[in-house]
Amino acid sequence: MSGFFKNAFLIAKKDLYSELRTRQVLGTMIIFSGLVILVFSFAFDPAQNTTKAVIPGVIWVIIVFSGILGLNRSFISEQRNDTMQALLISPMDPSSIYFGKLLANFTMILIVELVSVPFLFLLFDFHSIGSVGYFLLVLFLGSFGFISIGTFLAALAANSKSSEMLLPLLLFPVTSPILIGAVQATKIILSNIEKLPDAVAWMQLIGAYDVIFFVLCLILVEYVMEV
Amino acid sequence: MIVARKLTKQADDKFILRGIDLEINKGETVAILGPNGAGKSTLLKVLATLIKPTSGLVSIKGLEMKKSQHEIRKLLGYLPHSSFLYDHFTPLENLVFYGAAYGMDHIEEKAVSLISSVGLSFFLNEPVKNFSRGMVQRVAIARAIIHDPEVLLLDEPHTGLDQGAADTLNSVILTMKEKGTTTLMVTHDFKQAAEICERAVVIKNGKLIANFCLNGKDVNFLHSKYTELVEGGAS
Amino acid sequence: MTYLVVAYSIVWLIMFGYIYSLGKKQTKLLKEIEFLKEMENEH
Amino acid sequence: MEACAEKEKVPVFFERKSSLEKALFIGAAAGLLISFYLIFIWSPIEKTMGLVQKIFYIHVASASTAFIAFFIVFVFSLLFIIKRKRIFDTYAKVSAEIGLVLTTIVLTTGPIWAKSSWNTWWAWEPRLTTTLILWFIYMAYFMIRQMDGVWEKKARLAAVFGMIGFIDVPIVFFSIRWWQSKFHPIVFGAGPSQQGGGVDERMLVTLLVTIFAVLLLYGYLLLKGVALEGMKITLNHRKEKIRERLIQ
To answer: What are the angstrom distances between the C-alpha of A185 and each of A53, A134, D177?
Structure first.
């Protein structure tokens, strides 16, 4: 069991270090999230008060679309020189490889959120977060669920030649409960904090989804990574 | 050391391996010869636990592959066509990562000494992407043996190598052999095969058609024997 | 009333479309089998 | 000798007609005819929605059969992952195909019904939305199957996704239902459950007969599709044999 975590951390460390070296993915994700904010400022007039209502949606659009950029690279980057095969024939379990990749992707999406969410609030002049703690919690839960199933499906899609196109088609329908729940919970927390019990109920739904699919992915990932 | 029984591999309806029986003793160096598309690389991939055979049994060091894959993987060093290296990492970083993946201790010192033994001490901290083909292959060799494997599986290791790199590879194989390592080598290079291998097996059309000793025989013997087997219509 | 007719015609269109595609697949396969048999008889 | 024996086998395999398949065909045809009679002539016209309500029977029957089809996909996917037998993969594939066709029927009849009774083409109503997501999930399932590569790999990946997708369905339904009821309460009495105890007995009988008929049709199509897939596999197998013989 300790080997599982040791190997997962090894993979995560390798991926993040590799990202530090090349600075390809994270930079692209952050710039992309900035562009999403820019496009939304055209689509919804930031000066109008009603625009506040779309902010929860914009946050999750940023996470989903920049997240998918990172997820796409996560396994494709292992195809150069067939390093994925090297990982598979090593004594590491496929599940620990999956968990390591998950940790690396999750760290990256958290960094993107850390940069882009304050930026969004700043640009849209939004400064009335109902509860910072709950807001961070819902970001954490939603991102974890999205990234955990996303990493799994990225491993699945990596078997295809056109995996960049395949991944969104697989990922979006499957993660729809997370997206619904996360947007609703964020909306309540940001603008309607007196309805907090509803938001908590949504977070419980996301939490249940996270647990079910994380466990399922750990079990099934072995069948996805066979050559 | 390595025992394969009735090994078959099928991809869609094509048979790539059609019942291979192979037995290799500890410490032997064996060449696998055969025409293109005969299934040599596939056999090596099956032995390297990379792909599952359709049917048949493999056991390595008495361990059955299906049951104790994890233990077997620790024993194997596999060097395929692709380098298995991360381009933007230095040789040292690559070796340290793989050493850790195999659960080795004192990886750093081991990696440094391995890199100098393949003659790349000067390039210890240079990213692999700037390397030439021969240099990459040297690092790839070091990567394959970072965890002191007991079985070495090499897929055309001499292709594209300059004389210096080929000599390095041969000396690595011979040093490993002294430590009791079993080596299985797919090759097209008869000269190298005759030089370092004790035994040769010939595979054609997914079947093992010959198995003979090479001790003390020279390239010409191997060449004529191979031509007779493969082109002489024996199948 | 028109909606009802439209709905049921679409249902049957989809159904028959699917069954038709299965039938086409079958004829194609049978044709290939005939061809294959001839090939085998020649050898 | 070996080749000879197989030559004998071919016609037997291809020209065999399963009696179960025949029975299902007759059953499905008869069932659909009876359900037609029941829907259009026998069952009463609903008071508030009028004639259009009769869409409901085929709509619900297709939806429930589609759901069963996807459940069968799940079961055979699981079996395939455990046993790795090709027949399980074939069943999963064909069942998903039929499920997708039935879901398409649900998604086309749904809006027509919505337009006629609520005067809007699409309502983000829980069942309809769930069905739409279901449709997307199984479209994605077929995208996986269209990958290039050996069948074994495609089957394995599709099986994994077939399981993930099916386990997702209840969560999707639950979340959408919640989303709808909290923010857009359902005003329209959609679906059978909202009609509660007030359903006419004849309507219930008609619905059950229609569901049964569509189920029989599903069974027939499943067997037929599997037989065709089996034919294709054997055909490719024999083609490969001949190719080999020509090379040697």
So the answer is: 13, 9, 15
